[in-house]
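Q: Focus on the chain.
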Amino acid sequence: MSALPAVLWLQESAPATDYSFFMMMGMIFLIFYFLLIRPQQRRQKEQEKMLKSVERGDSVVTSGGVHGKVTGVTDDILTIEIATLKSGDRVRVKVERSRLDKVTKAGDKDKDAKSANKDAKSANKDAKSAKKGSGS
């Protein structure tokens, strides 16, 4: 029974709680939230939006690296045309919507091709002018 008063005496003389530890932990949590958690949530929302907007005629790339054109759409499964054989037969694959990695809209593909042509033409023009300048 003599040990009980000693324990009470030790508890009474305990130092006051230091709140700087809790503040530091809170700051670390905020840093993790803004640098890791929030950007990941944003990417996930963009991915879900992209998957919901897939339509027939869009060009897609699967997570396995298969490129193709969407020919059929259901709730969770897409039919993708990946090749055309010499005999005229078309090779089609069914893929889960969640396995898509990249989607290019049918109208956006034309815009991308036009901008790529402009870039290639300007690069050729620059190369020709540089060649003329160094050749004289």
About this structure: Residues 53-104 form a domain with the SH3 type barrels. fold (CATH 2.30.30).
